[in-house]
Amino acid sequence: MSTMDSLPIPFPDAAEYPALVRAALRAQARDRPELLGALAAGIEGLREALDWSAQGVGADETACVWLGDLRWARALGLNPEEAAPMPPRAWWEPEAARLAPADFAERHPLLARALCAGDMPYPARTPFTELADDAFLPRLAVLPLHPREGLEQLGQLAVNLTALTHGHSEALAAGLVIVLHRRALLGLDAEAVGDAGDGADPRRRAPAQLRERARRRVLELLSPRDPGGSAPSAGLLASYGATGATRSGLARVLAAAPLSAAVLADPDAAGTAQGRGGDQVPGCVRALARELTGAGIARPEADAADGGAAADSEARSEADSDEASETSQSPMARAGLAPTYPSAEQLADRLAERWVETARRWWGVRGASGG
Fold first, then answer.
1. Which of 308, 202, 220 has its CA nearest to residue 259?
2. SS3 label, residue 323
3. Cα 98–Cα 116–Cα 148 angle in degrees, nearest 5
4. Cβ(354)–Cβ(44) below 8 Å
5. What is the per-residue pLDDT for 147?
6. Which residues contact 19 (CB under 8 A, 6 or more apart)?
7. DSSP state of 189
8. Cα-atom radius of gyration of the chain, to the nearest Å?
9. How far apart are the first and last CA of the chain?
10. What's residue 154's pLDDT?
11. Looking at residue 238, what is its pLDDT?
12. Which letter does DSSP use for residue 122 in this model?
């Protein structure tokens, strides 16, 4: 590991790198097999951008992942808007379709709508501001192990990829913090997170002291550069979009999300808020609290509406659908539950192999020479 902007950069040619990537993707595949398309879209889009870079050609990473989301929409049988591009079919589409529930669009109507967007959403320009669950996390799974990004670039990319479907300020901040926290953990104790050959989630291997040190480091990195400045304004996201990748811009993303900021400052704050408001705490904030406390990566029994407290009637309808699907899966889903996890892990392993191969090629061509 090396450091840049006070966070480590993983070396793709390190002996432990393939195990780390495999463990991260397997953990995500086990956690949310129905969202395997998001995992594939994220890692394959970023891998494609790295591949182009290794050939000396620049590529928009966010756009590459967005094309992956459109492939996922196609695999789900959804109909993207007419203005959306039609990317070539990807090798992973049939498996992602097989592992997704047949009633995906009914269970996740807002997410399904976001996947069909005809124009690529940005943090400062997104129509999906009500989406605040944690379904975007599979898309970010490989980012902590990305070999190129420093703090500012890594943080902006996390926010950009989250905004492809989830534009709620809490989702943008939660995605940002989770990615930076996992990157910080990588540099704190290689023994705690590196011995992942059995496919165990690296987060489970990090003791509480390391998680706490990583949390404090992220809190420090995302502290406002101008502590005497004014409170965030309603135009924060537009301001962020104009500032580009800066520490102060990332700090403002966190400042615009009071629940996520409170959880980063005190991970127990999510439990306190949930005790007062029940399901008013968005799923992304609960996911952030689990990340920081090491409380496990399993989903809660039923997430609240995709939009959390600010969701409209459509989001509340989605919450009812999610709750029903968690407690009473379709007979086909129940019958296929046992073999789903091995199948998901097999796809995760193939994704990991392709990522490591490309990352090492990029590192050999450009990374080692500072390109």
1. 308
2. helix
3. 80
4. yes
5. 87
6. 194, 195, 196, 197
7. -
8. 19
9. 17
10. 93
11. 40
12. B
Alpha-carbon span 344 to 25, nearest angstrom = 10
Helix (H, G, I), strand (E, B) or coil at 142: coil
SS3 118: coil
Cα–Cα distance, 318 to 210 (Å, whole number): 37
The residue among 11, 77, 71, 19 whose CA lies nearest residue 44 is 71
Per the rule left: phi > 0, alpha: psi between -120 and 50, beta: everything else, 56 is left
Q: Which residues of the chain have pLDDT under 70?
A: 1-6, 149, 189-206, 225-244, 269-279, 295-342, 367-371
Task: Return the SS3 of 103.
Answer: coil
Tokens representing 358?
A: 């490309």
Among the listed residues 216, 176, 148, 158, the one whose alpha carbon sits nearest the alpha carbon of residue 9: 148
Q: How far are the Cα atoms of 48, 96, 177 from residue 217, in angstroms, in the given order?
A: 31, 36, 11
pTM for the full model?
0.81
Nearest to 235, CA basis, from 221, 259, 255, 218: 255
CA pair distance 189, 196, nearest whole angstrom = 13
Phi, psi of 79 (to 5 degrees): -120, 95
C-alpha 297: how far from chain center: 13
- H/E element holding 124? none
Residue type, 81: E
Task: State both tokens at 47.
Answer: 């891998």
